[in-house]
UniProtKB/TrEMBL annotation:
TM ranges: none
Domain Cupin type-2 per the UniProt entry, residue ranges: 47-114
Taxonomic superkingdom: Bacteria
SUPFAM superfamilies attached to this UniProt entry: RmlC-like cupins
Organism: Paracoccus aurantius
One Pfam family here: Cupin_2
Keywords: Metal-binding
Metal-binding as UniProt keyword: yes
Full protein name: Cupin domain-containing protein
InterPro entries the UniProt entry points to: Cupin_2, GPI/OXD, RmlC-like_jellyroll, RmlC_Cupin_sf
Length: 121
């Protein structure tokens, strides 16, 4: 999608997908993304990870990210330090920070991820 216009979408309209470097049932819906809405400055996703699912440790050159945990618990690694994250935790990731998240809990780990500007890495 390349048109940029305001819109309303229902979450059910966007299919679940497993992005590269996401493993074991780490699924996301790209709700606001260049490919789904034509956005250029924001990538807004809801993700749900099955137990043992994870995203590889990685970093972004210029992008800032916010993770907002909605349900479940897991481990978030930030620059080599691992911490338990659970419902209502909000995590800010500065550019250049190595990070990853894994579902180490007993049920689904569901969270929002906001990236700005849109990541190209």
């Amino acid at each position: 999608m390349t048109d940029r216009k305001s819109l309303i979408r229902n979450i059910a309209e966007e299919p679940w997908q497993q992005f590269p470097a996401h493993y074991g049932g780490a699924l996301s819906k790209a709700l606001v993304h260049p490919t789904t809405t034509g956005s250029q400055q924001i990538d807004y996703r809801i993700s749900t990870y099955a137990p043992m699912a994870y995203v590889e440790r990685h970093h972004h050159k210029v992008q800032e990210q916010v993770y907002h945990i909605l349900e479940g618990e897991g481990l978030m690694e930030i620059d080599g330090e691992k911490r338990v994250v659970r419902r209502n935790d909000v995590i800010f990731i500065a550019p250049g920070t190595w990070h990853g998240i894994a579902n180490t809990g007993l049920g689904q780990l569901t969270f929002i991820v906001v990236t700005t500007p849109v990541s190209d890495d």
